[in-house]
Amino acid sequence: MASTLTRDNILFYLNGARVVVSAPDLDQTLLQYLRSTGLTGTKLGCGEGGCGACTVMVSRYDTIEQRIIHASVNACLCPLYTMDGKHVITVEGLGTMKNPHPVQERIALLHGSQCGFCTPGFVMSLYTLLRNNPNPSELEIEECFDGNLCRCTGYRPILDAAKTFAEDAWKPSSTVNVDGTATAMPAKEPNGCGIDGCCRLKPESKADGGPDQSNGNGCCGAKQDGKCCREDSAVCVDGDDKADNEAEREKAAVIAKFQKYDGSSELIFPPFLIRYAKGNPAINSKDDDEIQRLPLSIASQNPASWCQHFYRPLTLDELLAVIEQHPQAKLVAGNSEVGVEMRLKKSKFPVQVYINDVAELQVIEECSDKVIFGANISLERFARTLDALVQTHAPERTQSFAALRENLRFFAGNQIRNVATIAGNIATASPISDLNPVFMAAKASVILASAHGKRRTVPMSEFFLGYRRTAMLPSEVIYGVSVPFTAKGEIVRAFKQAKRRDDDIAIVTCGLRVLVDDSNKVVDASFAYGGMAPTTVLAARATGCAVGGVWGDSELLDLLMRETQAELRLDYAVPGGMAEYRTTLAVSFVYKFWAISCRALGIDSVEASMADQMEDDAAERVLCKGKQEYASVTDRAIVGKGVAHLSALRQTTGEARYIDDMPAVAGELYLALVLSPHAHARILSIDSEPALKIAGVHRVLTAKDVPGTNCWNIFHDEEILPSEEVHYSGQPVALVLADNQRIAQEAARAVKVDYEPLPAVLTVRDAVDQNALFAEERVLRNGDVDHELAHSDHVLSGESYCGAQEHFYLETMASITVPKGEGDEYDIYASTQNPTETQMVCAETLGVPASQIVCHVKRMGGGFGGKESRSVLLAAFTTLGAYHTNRSVRIMLDRDEDMRTSGQRHPFLGRWTVGFSHDGKLQALRMQVFSNGGFSHDLSMGVLERAVSHVDNCYRIPATEIIGRVCRTNTQSNTAFRSFGGCQGMFLLESMLCEIADKLGKHVEEIRALNMYRKNDVTPFSQTLDDWNVPRMWEQLGDSAQYAERRRAVDEFNSKSRFRKRGLAQVPTKFGISFGVKHLNQGMSLVHVYMDGSVLVAHGGTEMGQGLHTKMAQIAAETLDLPLSSIFISETATNTAANTSPTAASASSDLNGYAVYNACKELADRLRPYRERMPEEPFSKIARVAYLDRCSLTAAGHYATPDIGFDWQKNEGLLYFYFTQGVAIAEVELDTLTGTHTTVRVDIMMDVGKSLNKALDIGQIEGAFAQGQGWTTSEEFLYFPSGPLFTQGPGNYKIPSALDIPRDFRVSLLENVEYNTLKTIYSSKGIGEPPLFLGSSVFFALRDAVMAARKQRGIQSPLHMESPATPEILRLACVDEIVELARIPETMKEGKVPFVTDSRDINTDDPRNGITPEEAREYTVVA
User: Fold this and answer.
1) Burial zone of 1185 (CB within 10 Å; 0-12 exposed, 13-18 middle, 19+ buried)
2) 975-1002 burial string, b = 16+ CB within 10 Å, else e?
3) Average pLDDT, stretch 1358-1367?
4) Cβ-based neighbour number of residue 1300 at 10 Å
5) Which residues are catalytic?
6) How far is CA 182 from CA 155, 164, 173, 174, 963, in A?
7) pLDDT digit string (tens) for 606-622?
8) Does residue 347 contact residue 335 with C-beta atoms inside 8 Å?
9) How far apart (Å, rounded) are the C-alpha atoms in residues 1115 and 1113?
10) How confident is the model at residue 558 (pLDDT cuts 50, 70, 90)?
11) Per-residue pLDDT for 301 more than 70?
């Protein structure tokens, strides 16, 4: 390097303490380092910066801006070596459970943490925002979470908690507006406690005295001094509109106790780091004891490291000197690209150069005609600079800057924007870059620097030479980007389309620019696109046609659209897929730009009058708000109350321990999987020698090393390790045991397996066509179907389909097995919903008694059914490894491994024939139901049974024949997922009802209401519907949500808007509660009362965020008449809770709750005489006296669901103990030119019985709804045609983000209902799964919007639309001239294989849609 002085260590501060790391591990990320030091609050959720679970705050002193900058970053992508000179604060640095930070406290107590695995990331994102701005707006709060994902909560409670920090929210003198924003009340008005309806604002309230009686909401009226009685509270509730809304009262009580946020008390930025950054020679002299900031040059001490040498230059000359010495060195800035390449592609870069500390590359220079942006300014600083430019210059000069700024709104998440640089975005030359098309359209230039002060400028239009290739020489670096100011008559816009609005890579992105003279003649134009070629490309033919034409002339518009389509037409098998959609987008963007630019230029054209429909999504701009309603509980002291999750504070402070947070046992080994690359193949040989030669590798295990039984699952049709054949791509073939994860995974890749590929079946339709079916079937027959069909006014046949869904629990599957050192005894610590099956299978695998194996489950970071059975296999692997090595063995799957090896929600296909009357009354239904079970049975028969028995949903059909089969395919064995087949069965029927409504020209809600079950109707599985409340909720919700008025408003909106359409849907659900297997309907508990009066409860359920332990503790406290603080639940373990049922089927509260009650009731009865003798004594003394009296203070409880049991052969018995019921109304707004949508509002009403904890139940409703919304909209599961899974992480599998949930989210519980047959604990109902199907109301509302678009274009035929309704599906269903223009002729598809495939209709054309499903549905994003 140019400098003669260098250092070989790194210095930073961690939670206020100085850290110096000598000879750092150059492959280590910040996350790995933190966790190695015991700071396990920061979690690994994906490893690619896509989920935010690893978020920490990194602070630095910026010598250019001369200020301290606090940034949220993804610790999973930050190399440890980039931390030199910075201050890292983790969730542990904020507070503890006993002394939490206000952020931690508020998220915990307002129900913002369920499983808790994502929670530290949310805490740190919000904390970083507050460090930068102690008084943020609600918009800033919402946007600070754009890089964080949550799978449990539905986001609403997190946003509610965060918004208590907003400048105007939840504070005295403010009111909440209809759009969710908060506005300060005028000073002249009497100020209440912050919510409309405060008693102080009531007309009857007087400054000199208020009413004597409470208004029923906890607000007693204005006090004598004119203040509200809850003045010290943050919120109050409306005594008129919310007189019995316990949800608001509970929230008010919680917020009233919040500690105030004082930003001045935060950890300070170490003053030394300011001096360090400045390199002040007066302080940082050679003789000074303080470490000097010098260039870094560090050689790895490990010859096996992927990075062998690291450099950190401080000047441009030093950087260029390193490049001259190492031309192939990898330059690292934000590491958002390099880090992902290393993790997912296993790319190795022996020499890495960190360039973000080179000051010359961070200078921004504003000239008279242009602005030069330093190459290494972060995207966050770039955005701030663009904002300033737009604000300080006339709009006609800043068109390009405004377009770039708009583009950055949806560029990755905050954590990425805080570290990624503009040079990094340019240099990677990604074909789907967000920024490069805008730079190119803006006529920007790249300034390149090389040694000896050389500079050259390359126009952006000439910079990209091909896929990932640029005009930059190996000896050059990007110095800056020059972007010219725009001129009068020049318009620039940027457009981007992705699968999800927040934090998603583009499908197609573009920058469009036009310059016209005073007569609107085009002087210059640039149309630049990403996602349409191997590199960013200019549509030269289209722009050539524009120059010389008159902007606003409709003939020019037609020409531009045709030329764009012709020039950018994609091949059917194009990498990235979606050929027709991408071409449609390219042309749609031209149309949008035409309309927007015509309006901006004052051109009177038809398109200009519709520009407001294209500029932005007004619905998306509305801030999110929520409303929860339920009545107070008057008959119980603890049960029913909205108590926060008992582990919530532990989770927000990072103290909650998950499997991989457990400290390693001495000598512990890490296990890695050798995975099959083939969907179906014969194993010819396995050569483990190359792996065993790697230092640190101990064993490689295969099927021959299984000492016991090598088969498992209910049908015993799956091997622990395959002996002869592999049956899906990603199947574990062998296990590698090594000293650490890095060595184990490297060795796993070294194992050589020879295969003989065999034919494979991937999709439901292929399986049906090839008769690849498991033998079993499930049938429900009622009435004479043939007779009813023959006498129906209408008979319609068709298909319904719903796709797979990944569980995406934030904590991937994990297991640790620890030998006890005596014989074959083992402790298994697993992230599983099924400790008993884990215990049993591991015992069978080893051939030892189950009594010698104990499975422990403290908590899971989410489960959703995905850890009911498939987690067992992972525990068997670690147990097998512990058996052979007599050492503790650990594994936590990487996100891509988890998605490749575990099963998903079953895709379902329904082929139906239905008879109905002229008015839509159903007469008969014959349906064949097929599920994709994957390669083994697993739980597929149970899923099928529930699907078949839920096809009726809430409707009476006089004659039915429903036949269900499971398809055998070469994919992962699909498994349990929240709703367990119920949602799939209901979706098949609801889709059919939509086509009936299309046929009859009615709204489908009319069909639903007409056919709805009434009380005492009988289902196809012979169950009489008592306690039937769906019709009541249908009517109540319709009234409270103003369905009729909104239906008229939606229709009026659609009549006036051509390119934006609203949709409205009202959807009911009934979900049967019970296990389908009779013997699983039992629960157990073990309760100890200790002499100090504390109580330990063990029960058979596991905690995965649903709040089961909290509810069990409430039941115990209520039954024992003790405060909740006296009850403790440590874990679920098979030595204290034996022979348990899996925590599933939404029945765990019922089963274990009654078991806990029974045990506590027995103890309460034993202790009653002592309490009666000592009524004034504390319970601790009573317990001690009872003990001294030799009274047993331990009781076991058991409960078995009565009357349950169903015979499928005879269609007799009780299949479900009861039904949890609900209704939802969803309203959406759809951009018909792109397929983007916003969920405007959702109203939900659920019948949850007499809830055990109403706040937790609301959380389950919201979280399940969001999951169902994702299942039917954004979450698309894709395979390569040869079998490997394509969607392997958050980069290309999109669960909903905080911006995707309803902007207005209202949930209420059905109240004041008497139940005749409900025999559950405290008359409560299971709630985990039932609301999920209601998320499909968004799908059906989108379908309604699509129908409006089609009808506008004269298409009246029924619409066949399959789930998920991705932007591609929605856009192509809105058939118009642009779609027709982009259509690929059949002759151009012949002999070509699509890039990816899913299980939808991939081989049949559907003329009803005007699109070919094969064309429209097989795609993924460009990788």
Assistant:
1) middle
2) bbbbbbbbbbbbbbbbbbbbbbbbebee
3) 96
4) 22
5) 1329
6) 19, 11, 10, 6, 54
7) 999 999 998 766 556 68
8) no
9) 5
10) very high
11) yes
Of all residues in the chain, the percent with pLDDT exceeding 90 is: 87
Asked if 892 and 660 touch (Cβ cutoff 8 Å), the reply is yes
Q: How many CB atoms lie within 10 A of CB 705?
A: 17
The band of 188, judged by pLDDT with boundaries at 50, 70 and 90, is very low
Where b means 16+ CB within 10 Å and e means fewer, 646-679 reads: bbbbbbbbbbbebbbbbeeeeebbbbbbbbbbbb
Those residues whose C-beta lies under 8 Å from the C-beta of residue 1052, and which sit 6 or more positions away, are: none
Residue count of the chain: 1423
Q: Angle at the Cα of 1040 (from 1038 to 1046), degrees rounded to 5?
A: 60
- 379 near 335, Cβ under 8 Å? no
Q: Is the omega angle on the peptide bond into residue 1364 within 30 degrees of 0, that is, cis?
A: yes
In single-letter form, the type of residue at position 283 comes to I
Give pLDDT tens digits for 1152-1188: 999 999 999 999 999 999 999 999 999 999 999 999 9
Residue 217 structure tokens:
């909401």
Reading phi first (left if > 0) and then psi (alpha if -120 to 50, else beta), residue 577 is in left
What number of H helices and E strands is found in the chain?
Answer: 41, 51
In the three-class reduction of DSSP (H, G, I as helix; E, B as strand; rest coil), residue 828 is classed as: strand
Instruction: Take residue 1277 and report the two structure tokens written for it.
Output: 């599961």
**H helix intervals, 889-981:** 895-901, 940-948
| Residue 626 Cα distances to 109, 230, 623, 867, 1251, angstroms | 17, 22, 10, 31, 20
User: How far apart (Å, rounded) are the C-alpha atoms in residues 946 and 1216?
Assistant: 10
| Separation of alpha carbons 358 and 349, rounded Å | 21
Give which of 135, 146, 132 is closest to 55, Cα–Cα. 146
CA distances for 1418 relative to 506, 909, 1410, angstroms: 17, 17, 17
- CA dihedral over 337, 341, 344, 349, signed as positive or negative: negative
Sign of the CA dihedral 769, 775, 776, 780? positive
Percent of the chain that is helix, strand, coil (3-state, to 5):
30, 25, 45
Q: For the chain, give the mean pLDDT.
A: 92
Q: How far is CA 1210 from CA 782, 938, 1186, in A?
A: 11, 25, 54
Task: State the DSSP string of 840-907.
Answer: HHHHHHHT--GGGEEEEE---S--TTTTTSHHHHHHHHHHHHHHHHSS-EEEE--HHHHHHHS--BPP
Q: Where are the beta strands (DSSP E) in 558-664?
A: 625-629
Report the alpha-carbon angle 919-921-923, nearest 5. Answer: 135
**pLDDT, position 192:** 43
Mean pLDDT of 894-916: 97
Question: What CA–CA distance (Å, rounded) separates 582 from 572?
Answer: 11
